[in-house]
Amino acid sequence: MSTYIQVENASKSFGDITLFNNIGFVVNEGRKVALIAKNGSGKTTLLNILAGLDSFDSGTCYLIRDIKTGYLRQDPQFDPDLTVFQAVYGAPGILMETVRDYELALHLHHQKELVEVSARMDFHQAWDLDAKIRQMLSILRLEDEDQLVGTLSGGQVKRLALAVVLINEPQLLILDEPTNHLDLDMIEWLEEYLLKSKVTLLMVTHDRYFLERICNDIIEIDEKSSYSYVGNYSAFLRKRDERLMSKMQMTEKAQNLLRTELEWMRRMPKARTTKAKYRIDAFYQLKEQSEYRRNDRQVEINVQTSRLGKKILVFENVSKSFGKTVILDDFSYTFTRGEKLGIIGRNGTGKTTFLNLITQQLQPDSGTLNQGETVVYGYYQQQGLDFKPGQRVIDVMKDIAEVITLGDGRQLSITQFLGHFLFTPEMQYVQVEKLSGGEKRRLYLMTVLMRNPNFLVLDEPTNDFDIVTLNVFEEYLKNFGGCLIIVSHDRFFMDKLVDHLFVFEGDGVVYDFPGNYSDYRASQKKQEIDARRNEPTDIAKTTGITEKETDNAAKRKLSYKEKKEFEQLTSEIENLEKEKSTIESLLYSGKLKPEELIHKSNRIGEIIILIDLKTDRWLELSE
Questions:
Q1: Is the pLDDT of residue 131 over 60?
Q2: Per-residue pLDDT for 525 more than 80?
Q3: What number of helices (H) and strands (E) belong to the chain?
Q4: Total domain count for the chain?
Q5: Looking at the predicted structure, is the pLDDT value of residue 221 above 60?
Q6: Mean pLDDT score of the chain, rounded to an integer?
Q7: Residue 324, exposed/middle/buried by CB under 10 A (0-12, 13-18, 19+)?
Q8: Residues 391, 439: one domain?
Q9: Residues 397, 498: one domain?
Q10: Does the pLDDT value for residue 183 go beyond 80?
Q11: Among the four residues 93, 522, 549, 562, which has the most C-beta atoms within 10 Å?
Q12: Are 34 and 219 in contact (CB under 8 A)?
């Protein structure tokens, strides 16, 4: 087993802020590793360093050479004027770069370079790159390859970035919050892909189901130090608890020993000779160990909820469309106090539009929305905090209020309230743009809650939050007495909080499912199994064989025509393989003229596609 990444005694700071100090860990071939830490601990910075976009202040980092590496950044950027296909084709990566080198050598008629790059094309299996790109775009539901990148939604941009990374078939895959902006179907696809893949994985994610199913190693950065654990997320929680308990016991033992040593130090000043120096040095080490205190402060969410009357919000025969895209069609519903509703559906089915209708940022095309007089909305939007350049943390808060009322009636100043959300006095005067993604989200959550809402509308609220903050936020929402609506791709978060779901299926179809997300998926899978069990096979449909006879029909012999086709395919595949081998020999010979080289290169691409198609049909008949 090779070591793909080895970090030793690595440190990184930004100004006076130390992110991590003398950390060390390894990522071995074939392992799927998660990086877990609180917001602001340097997770994204560390991934950027490993991807070659930044560097450590000190320490060493060994990355195995000559392997394909893919890096999915948290907020990928593309040229908005490119089409989807151009963005993938022109992206960095060994596969795309090899093809571009080949096309350049072909265009310039550089025969020597063509021979060399043709060998690389073979090695990387790059002859059918166009087909691979289109297949990946189809899987990731980016069917319109001519669509401009600038017109894509956040979820589509994330899927485009995934296509760029996965098309290169990397051996080492580095993912920073891969589930952000993906819908639930796409997250489940990615989960299955990673489970089946042999790729070595290092990722940052707050998705606890994702962590549980995929990862077999976890690296934790805690109090600027690193700790490694073997096992999934459940094993990590157990072993982390054991580590902290052991640390506390060691501290207690050090404090008891310190009392004895302190008496010795005070009682025997004359004994401090060279012979006793080792004991004096040990005393100071013991003193440092006994003074260890964990900084385990968590976000405190205890905000007052405004009084909510009996009438909350009523949809009566509401319809909403954008051109030919129907979002709601004659939809009616009455919201009740204490309701906890989850909303799911593919990207583009209208989930965010529905939230904008609720908060009256959009008006319906027809029908009415009747809102109660006591409703106070708290709308946490997907795009996050809107702040001015150079604005400080404390300024953002003071623009809303000077005093905040807690759930127990106490009033806090802005400075005290910021402290509840782990913004130290120093951080309160930091410019917002210098905060980490998670810290910006935490600040944004404060601006929503400090208005004392009684109707919370949360659009992707879990993006960029660390797991500790999510746990605190979940406990607050479980006890929230008002009305709660959640759109989230975080299955754990939804399962923990919602009582029922609105399922957006597109074309204005919305149905109410009684249960959480796992209940919904279990119901869907049962329906799929029942449908497969009751539906006759293709053979039964075409031959009229009854359901009971279907199994026997599936085992029938090939027809005469199919048998002849099978024999012909065997021969054709064999001949194509021979032709491919002959052309490869000619390409490497260096004897071909430029026009012959171009012709043979084009032909080998055609042969590879034909072999794939005919092999698929051969396998179909052989089964």
A1: yes
A2: yes
A3: 21, 20
A4: 4
A5: yes
A6: 83
A7: exposed
A8: yes
A9: yes
A10: yes
A11: 93
A12: yes
Strand order in the sheet with 32-37: 69-72, 172-176, 200-204, 32-37, 217-222, 225-230
Q: Computed over its alpha carbons, how large is the radius of gyration of the chain?
A: 30
Cβ count within 10 A of residue 589? 9
Residue 17's CATH number: 3.40.50.300
**Please, are residues 605 and 127 in contact by the beta-carbon 8 Å criterion?**
yes
Grade residue 255 by pLDDT with cuts at 50, 70 and 90. Answer: low
Distance CA 34, CA 217 (A): 6
SS3 assignment for 477-545: HHCCCCEEEEECCCHHHHHHHCCEEEEEEECCEEEEECCCHHHHHHHHHHHHHHHHHHCCCHHHHHHCC
HEC sequence for 168-186: CCCCEEEEECCCCCCCHHH
Phi, psi (rounded to 5 degrees) for 179: -90, -10
| Amino acid at residue number 68 | K
**Choice between 91 and 57, residue whose per-residue pLDDT is larger:** 57
Higher pLDDT, 262 or 249: 249
Query: Smallest Cα–Cα separation from 312: which of 449, 515, 456, 451?
Result: 456
pLDDT digits 0-9 by tens, 424-457? 888 899 899 888 888 888 899 888 988 889 999 9
| Bridge pairing between strands 172-176 and 69-72 | parallel
Whether residues 349 and 275 share a domain: the answer is: no
Q: Is residue 555 part of a domain?
A: no
Return the pLDDT at 254. 62
* In-domain check, residue 308: no
What's the CA gap between 356 and 368, in Å, rounded? 14
Alpha carbon distance 481, 219 (integer Å): 37
The reply to whether 135 falls in a domain is yes
Give Cα separations from 213 to 106, 196, 216, 222 (angstroms).
46, 12, 9, 23
Widest pairwise Cα distance in the chain? 107
pLDDT at 111 over 90: no
What is the Cα–Cα distance from 570 to 383, expressed in whole angstroms? 55
Domain shared by 438 and 472, yes or no:
yes
Strand-strand pairing, 17-28 and 3-14: antiparallel
For 351-360, the pLDDT digits (tens) are 999 999 999 9
**Would you call 423 exposed, middle or buried from its count of C-beta atoms within 10 A (0-12, 13-18, 19+)?**
buried
SS3 406: strand
Is-contact 508 319, C-beta < 8 A?
Answer: yes
Predicted confidence at residue 564, as pLDDT, reads 80
Residue 234 identity: S
Q: Which domain holds residue 268?
A: 251-290
